[in-house]
Design a protein that fits this description.
The protein has 425 residues and is an alpha+beta fold. It is 21% helix and 31% strand. It has a 13-stranded mixed beta sheet. It has a 6-stranded antiparallel beta sheet with strand order 14-15-19-18-17-16.
């Protein structure tokens, strides 16, 4: 087994992630959650058959190996599991969507909506990649399959259960010039260990400790275990472990633990992986006869209208729950109505909601009864110099919404949020 080697995430380590933005480092908990979060444990299928005996390597060298990995071809099966400690939504989504069909607004193949399924529960995925222009990800269900396919400038998504498809065209010349495409490929939740590991390492700063903690066998491959932990106390994040392929530097497994203990908050890893060139047929798609196809522009317009035929859809429901919710993910923390308190793993974003309004006092058109019950199951009433408010809790990210419309959010404890609100008063 490789001995424990540590590295500060100082100048040398940060140099392996050229171009990372300073603001992103300050909101690392939000980035990890967007795994959370936004933000994913593996079952015994990934159990080790004996830790391999590998040459010693330092944390610095292992991070550099990940950054230098040029592996662009692979295929395999991934198991991904997420436990944020959020109660079951039950019929909550339907309360937000008036006739939209489980929050999908009639466009169940839209990746912007379907990829959020990875934010809870356990899923089996099939993934394949042949360079930056050809990728495929399929979410397997008991009786259906949802696939997201990219082949050059063409992006297709298909839901076999509903026989619906989504189509987008990316402007290759715009992508190549660095300009934003009129029809960019849809962004989805991080779904592979590599994507999750890259998000974590991109945002690691001087408040982070990185060590090599032995070796493992993942999907039949020898791997080193890279452990990332906050140096500060008070974070809800305990550690993140990345199993890195010893041969090619590809992350094979990602595990995120909460500081309070318990099973992993996010755990994603290959159960099977092959680095040979995938079959070209995996990246071609023609809608079956009778498939309902939604174009990207139409799906976007439908979401902007609220998801339902009468305009009272998911967007309005979310805004009823959290006034100004559409502002929470915008930008990188530099918006005029957003201020970052602290840094690193203890960073807290202070956000001013439009109009300075808090939650509705009681169930109403903006706050359906189902939504009120859901919020009550998550929230704790708190008071302080700032006045009063409600803290909404998950195992990873907590948020304080004051009655005067301020939001304090971060991967920190409830007490830390209350202290931040008091200090800001």
């Amino acid at each position: 087994m490789a001995p424990n080697d540590s590295a500060e995430t100082g100048g040398g380590t940060r140099g392996t992630a050229a171009g990372r933005r300073k603001a992103a480092r300050y909101i690392v908990p939000v980035a990890v959650a967007g795994v959370a979060a936004a933000t994913i444990g593996l079952v015994p299928a990934l159990a080790s058959t004996g830790d391999p005996d590998l040459p010693k390597i330092t944390a610095q060298e292992l991070i550099e190996r990940i950054a230098a990995s040029d592996t662009e071809r692979l295929s395999g099966t991934v198991r991904i599991s997420t436990d944020l400690g959020i109660p079951s939504l039950g019929g909550l989504a339907d309360a937000f969507v008036q006739g939209g069909g489980a929050g999908r607004g009639g466009a169940s193949a839209d990746p912007q909506e379907r990829m959020t399924e990875l934010a809870s529960g356990t899923h089996t995925l099939r993934v394949a990649a042949d360079g930056p222009g050809k990728q495929r990800l399929s979410i397997l269900d008991n009786a259906s399959e949802y696939s997201l396919i990219r082949n050059g400038d063409e992006v297709w998504a298909y839901d076999s259960g509903s026989d619906q498809a989504y189509h987008a065209t990316a402007d290759g010349s715009a992508r190549g010039s660095g300009e934003k495409s009129a029809h960019p490929a849809p962004d989805g939740a991080p779904a592979t260990p590599k994507e999750l590991a890259e998000q974590l390492l991109e945002t690691a700063g001087p408040t982070t400790s990185v060590t090599v903690d032995g070796t493992a066998r993942v999907a039949g491959r020898d791997a080193y275990k890279l452990v990332v932990k906050p140096k500060q106390g008070g974070s809800t994040i305990g550690s993140a472990t990345v199993a890195v392929d010893a041969e090619n530097g590809v992350p094979l497994k990602f595990t995120l633990l909460a500081s309070a203990g318990g099973k992993p908050v996010v755990d994603a890893g290959f159960t099977k992986v092959d680095f040979a060139k995938p079959d070209a047929s995996l990246f071609t798609f023609t809608p079956p006869k009778g498939t309902e196809v939604t174009e990207a522009d139409d799906a976007k317009a439908q979401r902007e209208q609220g998801g339902g035929p009468d305009g009272k859809g998911l967007d309005k429901g979310l805004d009823g729950l959290f006034p100004g919710a559409d502002q929470l993910g915008a930008g990188d923390g530099g918006a005029e109505d957003t201020k970052i308190i602290g840094e690193g793993w203890n960073a807290i974003a202070e956000i001013s909601t439009p109009g300075g309004t808090g939650l509705p006092a009681e169930a109403s058109d903006e706050m359906p009864a189902e939504a009120q019950q859901f919020l009550d199951s998550l929230g704790d009433k708190v008071t302080g110099k700032f006045g009063s408010g409600t803290v909404f809790k998950t195992r990873l990210v907590n948020a304080l919404l004051t009655d005067d419309g301020k939001v304090y959010v971060g991967a920190v404890t409830k007490d830390a949020l209350v202290e931040a609100a008091n200090n800001a008063s």
